[in-house]
Amino acid sequence: MTLRFFWTMTFVLLCAVTARAGGDEVKIYREPVAFAPFQTEYVKLLSVEQLSSTDSRFGGLSGLVKTPEGYLSVSDRGVLFTFEGERFDRARLIPLRGGNGKLLKGKRRKDSESLALAPDGSLYISFERNHRVVRYARDGSVREDILSFGKEEQALVPNHGIEALEILRDGTLLLVVEGQVSHPFTAVWLVKDGQSKRFDLPLKDGFRPTGVVRLPQTDNFVLLERYYKPFLDVKARLSYLNVSADSVTRGAVLAEFSSPTPVDNFEGIAAHEDTQGRLILSVLSDDNFSLFQRTLLLRILLK
């Protein structure tokens, strides 16, 4: 081995270790998607983009949250995605770990579905199959196990778990279960100081919850729902969700999205005020790492 080769390999290994420690970065390609003008009394569709990457780890994005620096998302393979700014053209990937410090392994442990940002910058992340909510640091390490559910909890079945997660201004966790098509209700929990209260939320018109977001500086919520019939139809719906200590009820339907508007498996929703003071919803789809689906990003004005 020559000295030059030795130092070259040392440099390569150091770069690799540094990248792993801070999370790998992937390049993302953004392609505008044509759409017909769409608006309702409550919302106006501003833009549609398709996100893609040559990196096979990109995809399966199942949640979305706005941060001061940009956005965070989780994939259903147990990876935290960090996007800087508004462009969604690069993401840093950080694998999530278990309480033992080791990387999560197996679909049953890695299936992260939603996330919410705590005031101290940590993250609450929900998982299905092995149903639980875990508090994470931004480096993917566990801060605290918040809540786990046993087999006796009939509202949670293997692939229909806690799809929507958000935090009230007083620190209460809001958990919304996807629910089953054949059931008239799904479960909602409010969790604070180790105590939980359950409510039943009616399911309507074949739609099931996949995301929820608290609007900035308020305790007003927007619920994202999905309608899906394999090979036949897929739709999305936005509604207000009324949340108090004693009840969780549906509010007005803001919009239903269906063909010809570009629609896919929307599961992530975030909200922010732009530089013009407008309230913008960002809605992200989970492509399930499938060749037949897309990662779409909608920008929606909330009037």
How would you describe what is shown here?
There is one protein chain. This protein has 303 residues and is mostly beta strands. The protein is built from 2 helices and 22 strands. Strands 1-7-6-5-4 form a 5-stranded antiparallel sheet. The longest helix is centred in the first third of the chain and has 20 residues, at 3-22. It is globular. Residues 3-22 have low confidence and may be disordered.
Which whole number gives the mean pLDDT? 90
Number of strands: 22
| Oligomeric state of this protein | single chain
Order of helical and strand elements: HEEEEEEEHEEEEEEEEEEEEEEE
Shape: globular
Q: Output the strand order for the largest sheet.
A: 1-7-6-5-4
Most strands sheet = 5 strands, antiparallel
The assigned structural class equals: mainly beta
Q: Give the percentage of residues in beta strands.
A: over 45%
Count the helices. How many? 2
- Termini, distance in Å? 67 Å
Q: Uncertain regions: pLDDT < 50 for 5+ in a row?
A: 3-22
Give descriptors for this structure:
single chain, 303 residues, mainly beta, five-stranded antiparallel sheet, 22 strands, disordered N terminus
Q: Could you write a compact summary of the structure shown?
A:
The chain is mainly beta and 303 residues long. The chain has helices spanning 3-22, 107-110; strands at 24-27, 29-32, 43-52, 65-66, 70-74, 79-84, 90-95, 112-117, 123-127, 132-136, 142-148, 162-167, 173-177, 185-192, 195-202, 208-214, 221-229, 233-243, 248-257, 266-273, 279-285, 295-302. It has a five-stranded antiparallel β-sheet. Strands 2-3-22-21-20 form a five-stranded antiparallel β-sheet, with no helix packed on it. A four-stranded antiparallel β-sheet has the order 8-9-10-11, with no helix packed on it.
